[in-house]
Amino acid sequence: QLQENQDEIENMMNAIFKGVFVHRYRDAIAEIRAICIEEIGIWMKMYSDAFLNDSYLKYVGWTMHDKQGEVRLKCLTALQGLYYNKELNSKLELFTSRFKDRIVSMTLDKEYDVAVQAIKLLTLVLQSSEEVLTAEDCENVYHLVYSAHRPVAVAAGEFLYKKLFSRRDAEDDGILKRRGRQSPNANLVKTLVFFFLESELHEHAAYLVDSMWDCATDLLKDWECMNSLLLEEPLNGEEPLTDRQESALIEIMLCTIRQAAECHPPVGRGTGKRVGAK
């Protein structure tokens, strides 16, 4: 009897879905389209057994191409609620492979709010499975740490940190209390220097530091480690920094000190609402 009741309820839900949602998710009024996407996100999250499958997810994927930013935004926030729950990740694999390129392209959305949420969604995708995003996908997000719009840059900074800086080798656990050149931060500082040089935007160290300031403060304030990398002799088997790398580290270090002292973003970085269409 319980199974019959459940089947009956699901049949009623499907009838309502086909009779109302399927027509209204393409409504002429953007607010109604946004409500539809917001609600289907809630259904898929609360009743994943019935709604979290590709028959329903495809509507969210299609609507990511909506002309109105508020509707695209609802798609991304609905998906964030799903990707945040790691127990649901296996049900999202086909959707991810099918619509990943669209999500990556939305990091350059003409609406700043949409771009920020697209980056945050990709950060959740990254945490669910590192194999999903290609090196090219990641690089498309990395360069946004130099964006003039701070919320976009900060979101990209968190993505960059999660991808390149948040993992520690098991052996690091035994040397957490070491300081200076022998601390676990030493390799992370080098990674930051290498990334900065590879990006070839050498006049924008302040932008990179500001982008990562919120998520990597402890690393960026480890001036003892930075000093030791510049002044102490390399450890056995350790590659010394080149002159170019040392110069980059000095520039980054100066920017971190300025950021700590002044507590505001670099000149030219703001929080405007829109960016030109791309």
The DSSP helix count reads 14
The secondary-structure class comes to mainly alpha
Poorly predicted sequence stretches spanning 5 or more consecutive residues: none
Number of strand elements: 0
**Can you identify the CATH superfamily of the largest domain?**
Leucine-rich Repeat Variant
Q: Give the percentage of residues in beta strands.
A: under 5%
CATH topology of the largest domain: Leucine-rich Repeat Variant
CATH architecture of the largest domain: Alpha Horseshoe
Question: Could you describe the 3D structure shown?
Answer:
The chain has 2 domains: 7-133, Alpha Horseshoe (Leucine-rich Repeat Variant); 180-262, no CATH class. The protein is elongated. The longest helix has 23 residues, at 2-24. Helix 5 (69-83) runs parallel beside helix 7 (112-128). It has helices at 2-24, 30-46, 48-51, 54-63, 69-83, 93-105, 112-128, 135-142, 150-164, 185-199, 205-212, 217-220, 223-231, 243-262. With 278 residues, the chain is an all-alpha fold. The protein contains 14 helices and no strands. Helices cover 64% and strands 0% of the residues.
Main attributes?
278 residues; Leucine-rich Repeat Variant; elongated
Give a short synopsis of this structure.
InterPro entries: ARM-type_fold (IPR016024), Cohesin_Scc3/SA (IPR039662), HEAT_SCC3-SA (IPR056396), SCD (IPR020839). The protein is mainly alpha-helical.
